[in-house]
Specification:
The structure holds two protein chains of two kinds.
Chain A (H helix, E strand, L loop, with lengths): L1 E3 L2 E3 L3 E4 L6 H11 L3 E8 L6 H11 L3 E4 L7 H15 L3 E4 L12 H13 L3 E6 L3 H10 L5 E2 L13 H10 L6 E3 L5 H9 L4 E4 L1 H4 L4 H21 L22
Parallel strand pairs in A: 3-4, 3-10, 4-5, 6-7, 7-8, 9-10
Antiparallel strand pairs in A: 1-2
Helix pairs in contact in A: 1-9, 3-4, 4-5, 7-9
Chain B lengths: L1 E4 L2 E4 L5 H7 L8 E4 L2 E3 L14 E9 L2
Classes of the chains: A alpha/beta, B mainly beta.
């Protein structure tokens, strides 16, 4: 169970809805993952088109919470207007806020992100900012009114996994009471387990599941990894040691010399 | 009146946003609209007056990550 902006959710895995081989596969993957939150976007509708209606109907049938996003927005104005449009269509104040600053890395424009976050928080949104692992930016986002943060662990869609464990560990340590959701860069279930073992509260991923040979199997695998990582964190893991320590008691062993 | 709708040039007789949507065969609760980068709420479309050169965005739910 995890609480985000006052909502209690049964799963710590949040799932993207893009790039699946088919809408049916998306639905199966969502169910197999056990996720309680999916993220969705807004895009231009063709005149006379019904694409949005079909997709929205499918998503509603899944019975999960919607986290609209501002994916692809490159300016504060673009992101704010997209968020306001999303609130009207999806009927939720939740918004995954993306303000992209670099075309190659899809790195967030953290300056624009803080500004957009402030505007949206003041407007009553529950903002989930897609950010880096920078501590000062995180502080600014919290000061702007964000009650959760979504740091990347590697560039979007890269599948590199956590490339800066030290920074992630530092972030976790600096913000012990803030829900931290690793968003972007996860490629394998073991990556998800790793960041959950570090104490992150949840993960959001998309490509690693959608582009797997078997998205449904991969969704299930990620669901298990997230649970395993969280339970390991909660259970207190053994710290690594530089010397061998026998696990079998040495006292009472037979002597044959 | 010349307008840009979702990036494409249109010449229409409609003078309100609601009339424009009808003229271009847009309908449904799942649409969101913006004019010149600002949201126009569904409830305000009927009275929202369009001007020559306006840029209109009509968006709907789509897959995203």
């Amino acid at each position: 169970m995890i609480e985000l902006y006052g909502a209690e959710l049964p799963s710590r895995l949040l799932l993207g809805t893009a790039q699946y081989p088919s809408p049916a596969m998306l639905a199966y993957a969502v169910r197999a993952s056990g996720t309680a939150v999916v993220t969705v976007s807004l895009r231009r509708e063709m005149a006379g088109g019904r694409a949005g209606e079909k997709f929205w109907s499918l998503i509603r049938s899944l019975g999960v919470r919607i986290l609209p996003n501002t994916a692809g927005c490159h300016s504060v104005k673009e992101a704010v207007t997209t968020a306001q449009m999303a609130r009207e269509v999806f009927g939720t104040t939740w918004i995954k806020l993306e303000v992209i600053g670099n075309h190659d890395t899809l790195q967030p424009d953290v300056f624009g992100l803080v500004e957009a976050a402030r505007i949206l928080c003041e407007d009553g949104f529950a903002v989930f900012p897609y950010t880096t692992d920078d501590l000062v930016v995180a502080e600014r986002l919290l000061a702007a009114g964000c009650k959760a943060l979504m740091p990347w662990c590697a560039p979007i869609g890269s599948a590199l996994g956590p490339i800066n464990i030290t920074a992630l560990r530092s972030m976790r340590g600096h913000f012990p009471g803030v829900p931290l959701i690793v968003d972007a860069g996860l490629g394998r279930p073991s990556h998800a387990a790793t960041v959950m073992e570090l104490g992150f509260d949840a993960v959001l991923l998309n490509t690693a599941v959608a582009k797997a040979a078997d998205p449904v199997g991969m969704a299930r695998a990620f669901g298990k990894a997230v649970e395993a990582g969280r339970e390991a964190f909660s259970s207190g893991m053994l710290e690594p040691r530089d010397v061998a320590v026998p696990s079998t008691p040495t006292i009472g062993r037979g002597v044959f010399s | 009146m010349k307008l840009t709708v979702n990036g494409e040039a249109h010449e229409v007789a409609a003078t309100t946003l609601e009339a424009l949507l009808a003229a271009l065969d847009y309908e449904g609760d799942w649409l969101a609209t913006a004019v010149n980068n600002d949201l126009v709420h569904k409830a305000n479309r009927a009275e929202f007056q369009l001007n020559d050169g306006d840029r209109i965005e009509i968006l709907s739910p789509m897959q995203g990550g």
